[in-house]
Amino acid sequence: MNREKDAVVSRRTIELIVAGTLAIVGIGLAISNWKLGASWAADGPQPGYFPFMLSVMLTLASLYGIFDALRERHGARGDAAFVERAQLVRVLQVLVPTVLFCLGTEFLGIYVAGFLLITGFMRWIGTSRWITAIAVALVLMASLFWCFEIQFQVPMPKGPIEDRLGY
Amino acid sequence: MDSRSTAWGFGAIAGAVCLASLPAAAAWEPTKPVEFIVPAGAGGASDQMARTIQTIVQKYELMKQPFIVSLKGGASGAEGLMAMKQAAGDPHKIIVAQSSLYTIPYATNLPFSWKDLTPVTLMALDEFVLWDNVELPYKTTQEFLDAAKKVSTTEPMKMGGTGSKREDHILTAFIESKAGVKFAYIPYKSGGEAATQLVGKHTDANVNNPSENIAQWRANQVRALCVFDKERLPYKAKVTETQSWNDIPTCKETGLDIDYLMLRGIFIPGGGTPDQVAFYDQLMRKVGATPEWKEYMEKNALKEAEFGPAVLKAFLEKDEPLHKQLMTEAKFLATN
Amino acid sequence: MDGTAIESLLHGFVVLLTLKNILLMMLGIILGIFVGVLPGLGGPNGVALLLPLTFTMDPTGAIVLLSCIYWGALFGGAITSILFNIPGEAWSVATTFDGYPMAQQGRAGEALTAAFTASFFGALAAVLLITFLAPLVARFALRFGPPEFFAVYFLTFCSFVGMGKEARHKILISMLIGFLLAAVGMDTVGGSLRMTFGFSDLLRGFDFLVAVIGLFGLSEILLTMEEKLAFEGKQAKLDVKVVWRTWKSLPRYWATLLRSAVAGCWLGITPGGAIAASFMGYGLAKRFSRDPDSFGTGRIEGVLAPETAAHAAGTSALLPMLALGIPGSGTAAVLLGGLMIWGLQPGPLLFVEHADFVWGLIASMYLGNIAGLILVLATVPLFAAILRVPFPTIASSVIVLCAIGAYAVHGAVFDIWLMVVFGIIGYVFKKLDYPLAPLALALVLGDRAEDAFRQTMIASRGSLGVFWSNSLVGSITTLALLLLFWPVLSDIVKRLRKPRGGLPTEAASS
């Protein structure tokens, strides 16, 4: 038995979490829109009318989703793995760096963070040598910088390094 | 084509002359590219004004740093206003604002006030004109209002406009209370849309700015009934075959005593120093002195306003309470 | 009218065929493809950014340059949709549905050729329409008021929403989420804020592009990573002949092309826009196909239909802009601003007062699209080759591009986070068989449909009868309802026919 194939979480659990979350969100939105005015006035529906109806429908559909996920006939499929251990590890190998990249964008700017992401990804997830990874990342980010900041003048989030360079 | 290039040529000379006559450079100047925020959609009146200013600044090299227009028109412009509020202390952002400065906060409880920004200068005042479809039989304001009064309770006339609880809607409510009529106000996304909907007879009238209806007016599809100002527009060159902007009577002349103007002004984020304000004020004065700017003003029938932060502040202090009063009377204030 | 149209057009060609204008045309197309490929930096941006450059040029040269950026962006939007499942432009979302599966099967070159050729066909149909029917069409567009707009959105929706293979409640949930997301932010008709809960980042609502970059693009990288460390379709052979082979198969799909071109032209003029057109084109192709279930698995019609419709709509959207002064699309709105700054007033008189300019522009539509087609076809092998780059390099670069795209839409770092969240949602939804297309469609059409509906209600004082109040709106509404209930109707028809078809054989056997 290979641990790599173990299910981290079953399909049914995720179905229940998704439907449950949506049902709660639906109730919250319905309340918010009810307060805004959700009736049909003399000159047509009020601002909250459609969103209120939609939220109520979302809640009902999600509740049906919960009921559906718990039903017996989905038994075998429901118990199946939503994601296997090895798969989850691989997904996190992309997701975690992506989140770190977003954090980096807040502090270092998108160009430096992007450079770090591409270099790191090519070196550790891929098998590129340091020199290749750095060269590719540098050329790519520099050309993006040239294109957005200098040619198109679309300001991107920038950090201390660009600030030193006067951008 | 030739007349255009001559105009450019004169512009260069005139620009050079007025640059020389202006006081010495201000103590502060931008050290980074300046972002010019437009709290409106692409192609609209604010966007056009911003791009005209940008072009003039680039053409005459009035500034060392780049000058970049950035559209933030989400939520009827609230996006741009909030971006400016959050940029407090950053003098490299400026905004070209209009009366949504107070109408949006009043209508939606948005935590924003023009006092969160540092006023720089007025660029112009925008007029409003009462227009109806040329195929309707009402040739004067009085005829139009009489007809509107007759159907007020049964099937009110349809008045088109830009957005809900914004300047067009407020002005419509103002007309309703002054003239004792009732309209069905239909909010569209832009003045351009309101103009075409009037031509297509989906609405009976609108209160668009001159620039928003000029194409339809020149094509003799819409009729200008009156302008909401104390005096007539100064531009006497013929725009349509028979009429100039100056030929449109004021609403007061036609018995509807309303004057209503909208500011188009420049602000920097909160906490701007007098030096920073002075830099942008002088920049805009230089822009205002170019023939391109004058041509733009006339083409869009904008009303000239005095430059400087003092005039803008005085205008805001009078205009904001007026809007609060009008919006309260029209029941446009946010309740929750 | 016809004689003068051709004469004016020929004159337009003469004006255009100078070396300078042809160079500007090439430059515009290349720039356009470039901004079309970069997600988030769309046609409107490209045109807006170059606008100031053109103020010192003569108006004809300027409009050639800018309109060619527009054509280029229309062509370029399809490239990343097909290669990476990331729509470069909002109107190329529907292209991903079959384009990306084709690329995965190693048919990227075929899909790209089909997309470009279809775009060209759509544009050509629209330009012919503009050339010969401009005044007539302009008058027709004026007949569209709020009820007509609502009917058109409703029709788009009905043509697209068939019953998919997924569980019904999941289709419904996906659609509801799309509608709710579309309603967040400022409400145009009521003037109040909805569902923003005091967060200023929610004021502008959920942008369609930010959502689809995450839902389609990022989630695809996560799914690919889960399976293995590679984009499929690597084995795609570099083959210049793929263009010729694809072309030979195209005449077979004439009905799809024609149907999409008509739908596209119509939505461009009215102006429902290229995004709605692409969805409607895809929906109609699926609806009328003999084998609708195979859509989404890499059918060439699934690429042809949305691309033809989007390009036809994008091109014909220029007509209401020129003739009425109303922009049919974001890019058209920016061009409109440009025209005014050059001293040309778009509107009914433009055709009379500046005939040279108008016919020059129309001539540039023909030439620009031909030049565009040649240029993009030449790049097919190049783009197909991108798939051979090792996965880690591509994946990380694509993540950076997605982030830049999400940021560029509104200039907000918040949108990058939002894109990541949508990426995770997309990953979970795809694994649980929630369909994403209804969400995207509802998000893009939801608020516009609601605005049109409520504007209608104000004008009609709450009466629904207005949707059948004249022949135009009545026939659109009826058509929409017919399409909506098409599956049910065809079921009934089948059942009614069966007994009759069955009886004679039974009689014969007994």
Give me a quick take on this structure.
The complex is a heterotrimer of chains A (about 170), B (about 325) and C (about 500). Chain A is built from 7 helices and 4 strands; from the N terminus they run βαββααβαααα.
For this entry, give a set of tags.
heterotrimer; B: alpha/beta; D-Maltodextrin-Binding Protein, domain 2; 2 domains; five-stranded mixed β-sheet; C: 510 residues; mainly alpha; two-stranded antiparallel ribbon; 2 strands
Question: How would you describe what is shown here?
Answer:
The complex is a heterotrimer of chains A (167), B (336) and C (510). With 167 residues, chain A is mainly α. Helices cover 72% and strands 7% of the residues of chain A. Chain A contains seven helices and four strands. In chain A, a hairpin with a 2-residue loop joins β2 and β3. In chain A, α1 runs antiparallel to α2. The longest helix of chain A is centred in the first third of the chain and has 26 residues, at 11-36. The mean pLDDT of chain A is 87. Chain B is of the alpha/beta class and 336 residues long. Chain B has two domains: 2-126 and 261-325, D-Maltodextrin-Binding Protein, domain 2 (3-Layer(aba) Sandwich), CATH 3.40.190; 129-247, Periplasmic binding protein-like II (D-Maltodextrin-Binding Protein, domain 2, 3-Layer(aba) Sandwich), CATH 3.40.190.10. In chain B, α4 (100-108) packs parallel to α11 (309-329). The longest helix of chain B has 21 residues, at 309-329. Chain C has one domain (2-496). Chain C is 74% helix and 1% strand. Chain C contains 22 helices and two strands. The longest helix of chain C is centred in the N-terminal third of the chain and has 35 residues, at 108-142. The radius of gyration of chain C is 23 Å and the shape is globular. Chains in contact: A-B, A-C, B-C. The interface between A and C is large, with 65 and 62 residues.
Q: Give the CA-based shape of chain B.
A: globular
Low-pLDDT windows of residues of chain C: 501-510
At the third CATH level, what is the topology name of the largest domain in chain B?
D-Maltodextrin-Binding Protein, domain 2
Report the top-level CATH class of the largest domain in chain B. Answer: Alpha Beta
Provide the residue-averaged pLDDT of chain B: 87
How much of the polypeptide of chain B forms β-strand, as a percent range?
A: 15-25%
Shape of chain C: globular
